Sequence to fold (181 residues):
Amino acid sequence: MLDILMSVHQEWIVKMLSGEKTDELRKTWPKNIPTPFRVRLYCTQGRGPQTLLLDGKGGAELGDYRNIHNGWQIGNGFVVGEFICPGRTVVKYPSDEEGFWWPHMAEISRSTCLSVEEICAYIGIGHHGSAWHIRDLKIYDKPMELDRFFMPAERDGAWLCRVERAPQSWCYIEQIIKGVG
Fold:
């Protein structure tokens, strides 16, 4: 079964978990799998002083990695959870010639936790993106290494490519090793 592996910064994972972030904005959308599909969340190595800390009970928060206690684990650099994506909202930044404003931009701004200016700068004039809907978010009790997953290889239809590096945005993956999710 195909899943998606998506790289996400630690602060966005916390906002997803709190329910504040209900959509994830991306420039591209998967074409090879039908909705709904599962998205595995890879927490990026980090930027800034905050680390994603996992409590081992499905919870997470941002904190200083030096203050880990009582079984908390670092999530940065690991696959830390998943959500179901039941669909998307297409987000378009109109060109000057089009002369209209996309009517739901304020809602997309709220659901993605991005300002309208940030959305427009990311998408670019005359281009579109997708607000991937986030449903049934689950944070794993234990973070998983990337090498537990495989990417499709174009060699005789075989699934041979173990994930060695996190995707820049997202990629297709296949679950092969038992005990994953």
Remarks:
- The longest strand covers residues 135-144.
- The chain has a mean pLDDT of 86.
